[in-house]
């Protein structure tokens, strides 16, 4: 094992979406992530979020399985789950019971709406969570309506990353206090937090609620994507005056050198955007790369997922790795002294039951008795 979280043991209650992704990142950073699955199953190499973890499959309808889960929780530093509020309590694995068993436990709860509130028990997905935060309404073209930004903003930005931040902060605090606590990580809360800079622009009077009417939402001519002669796209982000001047030079266009004044001269944006669009369409994406790439224009080609793997900068940084024939992201961020690494590819659900239980102090006879009771599931 390697990584800054080596020596930290985390229980992941198997689920979907932001929970497994959070577990993957924690495992990449060296944490021993033990996934409690509800059923055994074959390994799926394409299930990238399952990499680096170990698995035990338990029939949580049986009291013997709950006893085993509590035994594992007693030896863990943290646990996280992504069920609707109340599900863990019904299983007999709620925070009160787990913290009684392990007072230092950090108990993470990953939901869309949070543990309380009018919508807390309602079903939802990323698109719904970001819809009520103001984020979705701000993304898209003026004429086309809001555009879902994949499920990056809600599930993974406001969800997984805020869950991890909360878990790690609580783990640090537990080292000094000796006490665990519950981390309520709601996707809506996280996305609203991510909207803080936009809220600041609004408070300062520099942000409109109308889509494609602002300097960072595709409304301005200096921060947008443009289609090239070959149908591919490039991105421009020439916000600062010196970068804007360089953009005009590289495009061989008179865009006016007003610098920051252009941020607020919205009446000029459509004309200048059309002039840039017309110019960009005279060359292919590769030709524009030859002219602008590596300069201070703040330029980059718009790549699809396959092209991104082959992009020279990404290759130089070794941002992708291949495991079991599946190309996937390398661990991030990077640590100078305790580098992260992918410990293993996705394992079969339940594959590590015997070794996990042995580490927890159970003898062969104990493990066999739990097998006979049907508490442990094997494929």
Strand order of the largest sheet: 3-2-1-4-5-8
Termini gap:
27 Å
> How much is the average pLDDT?
96
Q: Main beta sheet: strand number and arrangement?
A: 6 strands, parallel
> Proportion of β residues?
5-15%
What is the CATH architecture assignment of the largest domain? 3-Layer(aba) Sandwich
Description of the structure:
The longest helix is centred in the middle third of the chain and has 26 residues, at 152-177. The strands form four sheets. The protein has a six-stranded parallel β-sheet with strand order 3-2-1-4-5-8, with helices on both faces. It has a three-stranded antiparallel β-sheet with strand order 9-10-11, with helices on one face. Helix 1 (18-28) packs across helix 6 (152-177) and helix 6 crosses helix 7 (187-194). It has helices spanning 18-28, 63-74, 87-91, 95-101, 126-131, 152-177, 187-194, 196-203, 241-251, 269-280, 285-292, 305-310, 312-316, 353-359, 364-372; strands spanning 9-13, 32-37, 54-57, 78-81, 106-111, 140-141, 145-146, 181-186, 223-227, 233-237, 299-301, 320-323, 326-329. It is built from 15 helices and 13 strands. It folds into two domains: 9-194 and 323-372, Rossmann fold; 223-316, formyl-coa transferase, domain 3 (2-Layer Sandwich), CATH 3.30.1540. With 379 residues, it is of the alpha/beta class.
Helix/strand layout:
Layout: E1 9-13, H1 18-28, E2 32-37, E3 54-57, H2 63-74, E4 78-81, H3 87-91, H4 95-101, E5 106-111, H5 126-131, E6 140-141, E7 145-146, H6 152-177, E8 181-186, H7 187-194, H8 196-203, E9 223-227, E10 233-237, H9 241-251, H10 269-280, H11 285-292, E11 299-301, H12 305-310, H13 312-316, E12 320-323, E13 326-329, H14 353-359, H15 364-372
Parallel strand pairs: 1-2, 1-4, 2-3, 4-5, 5-8
Antiparallel strand pairs: 6-7, 9-10, 10-11, 12-13
């Amino acid at each position: 094992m390697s990584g800054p979280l080596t020596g930290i043991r985390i229980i992941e209650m198997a689920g979907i979406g932001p929970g497994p992704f959070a577990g993957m990142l924690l495992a990449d950073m060296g944490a021993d992530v033990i996934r409690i699955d509800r059923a055994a199953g074959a390994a799926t190499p394409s299930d990238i979020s399952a990499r680096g973890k170990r698995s035990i499959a338990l029939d949580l309808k049986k009291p013997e399985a709950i006893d085993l889960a509590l035994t594992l929780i007693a030896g863990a530093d943290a646990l996280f789950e992504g069920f609707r509020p109340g599900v863990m309590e019904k299983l007999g694995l709620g925070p009160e019971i787990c913290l009684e068993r392990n007072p230092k436990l950090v108990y993470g709860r990953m939901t869309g709406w949070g543990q309380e509130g009018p919508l807390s028990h309602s079903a939802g997905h990323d698109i719904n969570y970001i819809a009520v935060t103001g984020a979705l309404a701000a993304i898209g073209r003026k004429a086309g309506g809001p555009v879902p930004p994949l499920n990056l903003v809600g599930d993974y930005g406001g969800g997984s990353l805020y869950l991890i931040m909360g878990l790690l902060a609580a783990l640090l605090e537990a080292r000094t206090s000796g006490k665990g606590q519950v981390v309520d990580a709601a996707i809506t809360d996280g996305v609203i937090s991510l909207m803080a800079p936009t809220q600041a622009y609004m408070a300062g009077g520099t942000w409109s609620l109308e889509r494609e009417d602002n300097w960072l939402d595709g409304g301005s001519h200096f921060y947008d994507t443009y289609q090239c002669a070959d149908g591919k796209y490039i991105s421009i982000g020439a916000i600062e005056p010196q970068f804007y001047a360089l953009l005009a030079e590289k495009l061989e266009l008179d865009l006016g050198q007003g610098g920051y004044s252009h941020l607020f001269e919205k009446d000029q944006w459509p004309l200048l955007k059309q002039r840039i669009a017309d110019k960009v369409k005279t060359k292919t994406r590769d030709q524009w790369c030859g002219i602008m790439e590596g300069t201070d224009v703040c330029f980059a080609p718009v790549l699809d997922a396959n092209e991104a793997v082959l992009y020279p900068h990404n290759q130089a940084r070794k941002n992708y790795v291949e495991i079991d024939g599946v190309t996937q992201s390398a661990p991030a961020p990077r640590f100078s002294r305790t580098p992260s690494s992918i410990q293993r590819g996705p394992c079969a659900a339940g594959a590590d039951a015997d070794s996990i239980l042995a580490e927890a102090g159970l003898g062969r006879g104990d493990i066999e008795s739990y097998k006979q009771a049907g508490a442990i599931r094997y494929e």
